Request: fold
Amino acid sequence: MSTRDRLVATAAQLYGRFGYTGVGLKQVAAEAGVPIGSLYHFFPGGKEELAAEALRLSGQGYQLLVEGVFESAPDLVTGIRTCFDSAAEVLAASGYADACWIETVALEVASTNEPLRLVTAEIFERWIEAATRLVEAAGAVDAESARRFGIAIITGLEGAFVLSRSLRSPEPLHATGESLVAAAEAVLSARPGAGQSRAGQSRAGQPRAGKGGRR
Amino acid sequence: MSTRDRLVATAAQLYGRFGYTGVGLKQVAAEAGVPIGSLYHFFPGGKEELAAEALRLSGQGYQLLVEGVFESAPDLVTGIRTCFDSAAEVLAASGYADACWIETVALEVASTNEPLRLVTAEIFERWIEAATRLVEAAGAVDAESARRFGIAIITGLEGAFVLSRSLRSPEPLHATGESLVAAAEAVLSARPGAGQSRAGQSRAGQPRAGKGGRR
DNA sequence: GTCTATAAACCGATAGAC
DNA sequence: GTCTATCGGTTTATAGAC
Reply:
């Protein structure tokens, strides 16, 4: 792993735990075992450039992770359930520390650092587009409602992360996931050619009970 | 307005824009027109005590605000719509700065400051209980699913704030609100004595069309 | 490319005069 | 209760030797 990659990786890790303003460059360099001068050699733009790079890398990482979960699920509804349930497991296993650090930084910079705000906006926009594609693949009617529900999945996940981390409980993630499952069934049953019962399959599997508990 | 109240109010304002680690006590004191010595006179616990007080005050304020919106709405579904739509208006009017600053601080302190984390947890728990009461008043079946959907309203709102602030667009708030409306109709139609069509009224009004647009 | 030293500004917190 | 000066430590960033 190159010096540069090590800096980006430890920056992502530290910004995730302490936030953007909560971590100094000296701390990042020390943790990565790199002198501060080398940091400015690779990132002449200083803290901002390093954070932008870390954000973009983590943003892509999170996207691939979630897309993988959905694509290996038999249908959209189980994809949503698996996504929120496994997020709850990972979060609890890390002592409620590792959720989505991009949202922490996004809130910190939203009104204070325009270049970094734009970086987070690009990441979120890509996530929305990816989620929209997943909903469309599940058979939702028009592009507009697919995007609308794709956004709801992202916002639900991010909001549940906040409460689950603060409360140190998986309950917000489970509850939000179940609410999105109910919404997905409603959205998908409204598509042309769908019966008015709860549906939601796109490529396999029998209709699930859907009312299910928190396992 | 007393010196003490002025400190708490400006602290809430500054922490909202720059985050907890992003604002110094000197800055708070200067903005409030108070010498730093007086700040430590009223808050011997320093930054942490001041932030805790500001969090509790703002937490109660947000709760009263949202409860007022829901209680003056004819039913749960229009309460949700009004809540998300007016939040989008307020946010846009402030240049996408004033959403919910408690979540910014909650993420910052979640893994770094246990006393403040507990303060945010208490606030979120009260919000959940308030939201649960609103859902129960709308006629949802059991206490468990009422709490589950109450949580989803809070997490949806908080998550939508993150994306709307980052993207500087009302779209995430509108999309999340519509998704919660669909989920509410599904949850409420499952209650005993309800037809299996989409419902959602609790005290007034005819059944709405429910599929409606973004106005 | 690597590393050290340092500048200039800021941080939270305290002491002590008034 | 108000206000100032200051301590010790941190921040971002740069200069310059190697």
